[in-house]
Amino acid sequence: MIVSFVVAVSENGVIGRDNGMPWRLSTDLQRFKKLTLGKPVVMGRKTWESLGRPLPNRTNIVITRDTDYAAEGALVVPSIDEALMAGEKAAQAAGVDEICIIGGAQIYAQAMDKATHLHVTHIEASIDGDAFFGPVDPLVWQITSEEHVPAGEKDNYATRYVVYERR
Questions:
Q1: What does the alpha-carbon distance between residue 112 and residue 1 come to, in Å, rounded to a whole number?
Q2: DSSP 8-state secondary structure symbol assigned to residue 65
Q3: What is the rounded distance in angstroms from the CA atom of residue 91 to the CA atom of residue 86?
Q4: 39-61 pLDDT, tens digit each
């Protein structure tokens, strides 16, 4: 089973601010949708709450330690391992071979050793924020594709979309 991170990160490692994204990147959101559609998506509670609703046409899996937490339209699990087990079942039922981890910072940090692929949108700017993604270690990850994406009409910044695979 492929376990992919899908993340947008600024030059200074920021992935979020105040439980939201401190940028507007319509081009990247279109890519995110294309990458995740039909696949299980795994996220932490804060990411779930920032979305405000389940992502359509995807099994939404929310990780939280709060045993009483309810997320309408999502499966709620207490750990990364249980999220990946639920994701694998959902992926098999959907006929796909990939689980997408979509944030936030704590979930990425906890799941880094389980990831097989990283889909990283490198935002070509330093941005203020309070949630961070660590650097991608070139000794662990190799670039398999890379694309420069100029800022579109509805984008705040130019980006560089890079796919990494675990060595």
A1: 15
A2: S
A3: 9
A4: 999 999 999 999 999 999 999 99
Sheet containing strand 117-123, strands side by side: 75-77, 60-63, 41-44, 98-101, 2-10, 117-123, 159-166, 141-149
- Domain definitions of the chain by residue range: 2-166
For the stretch 63-120, pLDDT in tens is: 999 999 999 999 999 999 999 999 999 999 999 999 999 999 999 999 999 999 999 9
Residues contacting 113, CB < 8 A, separation 6+: none
Kind and range of the H or E run holding 46: helix 45-51
Three-state DSSP state, 125:
coil
| Vertex 32: Cα angle to 31 and 37 (nearest 5) | 105
CA distances to 8, 90, 138 from 85, in Å: 25, 9, 28
Comparing C-alpha atoms, which of 11, 17, 24, 1 is closest to residue 103?
17
> Which whole number is the average pLDDT over 7-15?
98
Report the CATH number of the 2-166 domain.
3.40.430.10
CA distance 21 to 15: 7
